[in-house]
Amino acid sequence: MPLVSGFKVSAPGSTMLMGEHAVLQGEVALVCAVDARIEVTLQPRSDRQVHIDSSLCQYQADLDKLTPQPALSFVLAAVLAYRKQLPSGFDLIIESGFSSTVGLGSSAAVTAAMVVALEHFAAIESTPLERFHSGLRIIHSVQEGRGSGADLAASLTGGIVCFSPSPLLIEPLQCPDGLILSLFYSGYKMKTPEVLRYVEARWQQEPQLLQQLYRIMGETSLAAAQALKAADLTTLGRLMHVYQGLMDALGVNDATLAKMLAELRQDPAVLGAKISGSGLGDCVLTLGTSTPKSLPVFIQFSISPADQGAVLLQQD
Predict the structure, then answer these.
(1) Secondary structure string (H, E, C) spanning 156-189
(2) What is the CA radius of gyration of the chain?
(3) What is the pTM of this model?
(4) The predicted structure's pLDDT at residue 301
(5) What pLDDT score does 2 carry?
(6) Which of 143, 158, 244, 277 is the most exposed place for a label (fewest CB within 10 A)?
(7) φ, ψ for residue 233, nearest 5 deg
């Protein structure tokens, strides 16, 4: 019989403040949880069936004979990872406050929510670091070993996180009062693996120069972390512009993003503006103390140390 009654877990999406591309080469990144969240509601069953209700698809299978479903690859990989420890089958409802087609770390957010939910269901006690490693193994199992874990760290921890993949660092940062981050969606998004292949091809003649560029990106992220700790928003905004210059050099800006950046930087409310994500589409991120007026905001959020990462919300 099931050991627990039904319950809900919520985990935030995330966006990069600094460190895109370079974090995949082992450099430091700053990643932020956002106000948009994914919720999973788990209701134990008395049999071994797994029923999943999601906006992406409907799914039914035996817990011991899970069948593949690409739309639920991260969810099913999480179930597979914990299957032997689960007391029964379950019904799962997945609700998202943002589209999976927009780069807000939906895969990491649903993975974080699933790790917390399945460990609670199986009565597993683990540390935050153990949860991170469990979630990263799940992500790597789906993405063939790719992924730094930065977005997973933000979804599990909340707030702004200073992250390094090697040696592993997950450091929550004290956030200045009045810090407002806004995202502006370009209307399209190239998948990250495609952008990475594009960058690799573009730089194949200058691999050593590319590594130096990644190193400078990492140093810029470290400087931005120090600016955050000092509550120096002016310096943080300037460093965002520096990092955007490095993204330009990398080759992941395009005409639409460049136009958005130019318009936003003319707004007196904007202290800093840069691409957030792998580039060639996706979002532009701004830092300020008020809302920019130049473009319609896709999502706006303020960060505080109390912002929750993945959390158990309720139990029936």
Answers:
(1) HHCCEEEEEECCEEEEEECCCCCCEEEEEECCCC
(2) 20
(3) 0.90
(4) 67
(5) 45
(6) 143
(7) -70, -30
